[in-house]
Design brief:
Blueprint: E1 3-10, H1 22-29, E2 32-40, H2 56-70, E3 74-78, E4 93-94, E5 97-100, E6 102-107, E7 110-115, H3 122-126, H4 128-154, H5 162-169, H6 171-190, E8 195-198, E9 205-211, E10 214-220, E11 229-234, E12 237-242, H7 243-246, H8 263-273
Parallel strand pairs: 1-2, 2-3, 3-5, 7-8, 8-10
Antiparallel strand pairs: 1-11, 4-5, 6-7, 9-10, 11-12
Helix pairs in contact: 1-2, 5-6
């Protein structure tokens, strides 16, 4: 049975890369029925896109996202840095699907400011080639990490995250994440938003930030490479969904959504945009 959710936010899926956990994401998407679905950047990784690598599971995610829009879900695709090619199509609308750079969401008497977050990243804004090189290195690290974790699982041992270890132990990485969250929150307070919702840094989070001018709640939807997380809003409450914690509650893939799809047609659609 599908679970009704008012709002679902996912980001940093990076379809088209080896690290993307498309099968797990598809299983999650098949288990929910959201009124609003917000894709907060880096859904298709155009920076690292290769025609030689876009598996059927990745195409099925694209099909599922389109299916949501055709079945009544409001779908907002907010562009990120890895799918920045879509920014030339900002404000494009097709039925229930809308492409935008940011989105303001009204939740009763509160307002949420939603954007990807790469605007805070100096390496992306001023040294794009360095950021792209780093993206390729990260993808290789994740591919190697997946191989190691496969071996660990076979041996009955716990999974290990190389990038997580780096982020948690390298002072510059810890400072970058802290600065990112604080900058986003202070801007939201300055502009009188109750919530600020980002992606980009692959760090799922919900926390309150206060300063002399006020307070807001900072939220980050994480990613579908390592944390496998999403933000959900239902009954006036935000919560983080973690696939690894909830996968035992998910039913098998929806047979209607898992039928053979026209891969050639979808691939043509993706490559035309890229």
């Amino acid at each position: 049975m599908k679970r009704d959710v008012e709002i679902v936010i996912i980001s940093d899926v990076h379809l088209g890369t080896y690290g993307c956990k498309a099968k797990e994401l598809l299983r999650y998407l098949n288990a929910i029925r959201p009124k609003t679905l917000i894709l907060n950047g880096d859904i298709i990784d155009i920076w690292q896109f290769k025609k030689s690598y876009f598996p059927k599971s990745h195409l099925k995610v694209v099909k599922k996202l389109i299916t949501f829009a055709t079945k009544g879900t409001d779908v907002f695709y907010i562009t990120g840095n890895h799918d920045e090619a879509f920014r030339s199509f900002t404000d494009f609308e097709l039925g229930k699907l809308k492409l935008c750079n940011k989105h303001i969401l009204k939740l009763g008497d509160k307002k949420a400011w939603i954007f990807h977050g790469d605007v805070f990243d100096a390496s992306v804004q001023h040294s794009k080639w360095i950021a792209k090189l780093g993206g390729k290195g990260y993808d290789l690290l994740i591919a190697f990490n997946n191989l190691v974790n496969w071996a660990l699982e076979k041996a009955g041992k716990e999974k290990y995250s190389f990038s997580g270890k780096i982020k948690n132990n390298v002072k510059k990485a810890v400072k970058y994440i802290g600065d990112f969250e604080l900058t986003a929150s202070e801007l939201a307070i300055e502009n009188q938003f109750d919530y600020v919702i980002c992606g980009h840094i692959h760090q799922p989070q919900i926390r309150e930030v206060r300063n002399k001018k006020g307070r807001c709640t900072y939220l980050n939807s994480g990613d579908w490479i390592e944390s496998l997380s999403a933000l959900e809003y239902h009954n006036d409450e935000w919560k983080l969904f973690f696939y690894d914690d909830e996968k035992h509650l998910l039913t098998d893939d929806d047979p209607d959504e898992m039928q053979e799809i026209n891969s050639t047609l979808l691939m043509k659609l993706v490559t035309q945009v890229v």
